[in-house]
Amino acid sequence: xNLKNSVGLVTGASQGLGKAFAExxxxxxxxxxxxxxNHTQGAITKAEFDQKYGPGQSTxxxxxxxxQSQLKDLFTKTVRKFGKLDILCNNxxxxxxxxxxxxxxxxxxxxxxxxxxxxxxxxxxxxxxxGSIVNVASMSSFLPAAHAPAYTASKxxxxxxxxxxxxxxxxxxxxxxxxxxxxxxxxxxxxxxxNHEETLGMFHQFxxxxxxxxxxxxxxxxSVVVDGFLQLIEDDSLNGAAMKITMSKGIHFExxx
Length: 257
Fold this sequence. Notes:
Structural class: alpha/beta
Strand order of the largest sheet: 3-2-1-4-5-6-7-8
Strand content: 15-25%
CATH architecture: 3-Layer(aba) Sandwich
CATH superfamily: NAD(P)-binding Rossmann-like Domain
Number of domains: 1
CATH topology: Rossmann fold
Shape: globular
């Protein structure tokens, strides 16, 4: 996919990986809709991008992705603003074992809902022009994590959903490529959740095990994850792929049969 003049929508885009993904698209001369529940930080990020790339290249929309009405409105506003939708990055995510239902809702249920809304706008067999969806999963999609069972379940679900909907797209000739981005620990604020009992709840007792694992495998710089993100969008041969990113192996793919 040639990203110049394409239109991308990134959830959880006010900071962290979402902000980095959005900026990567802007650098490629795409137009980007920034979505986040954090209005204050979103406005700051939008102002920063306006200075760097011009005010017409991005827009910020406050949205709670767990609200079906807000999410549907987000897609309507995106198409109204830029005339189309080519790329969806389902990045919004949390890690809260104390409120595990919310973790599942944000990380998995909202991702599925957003993907279905994107399909409505992009499916070639329904009059759309195709496109690309990148679902942000995790190495937790493959490995158990005693300190974060619900988070891990959500990321297992993201991977399963991605592979299945990608196969549906292939068989149904949707013209949409759907891939999963599965990085190891990344240097973002989400990583700090392992230090707090209010987020880990009864699994806080395993925080030292998690810290030892982090020390063992290392922490990725967001720039490496951005490189993988762009590859998933730009490489038209990739559909249903599970891209792993680790310190030891860099960007590589899970071989799934």
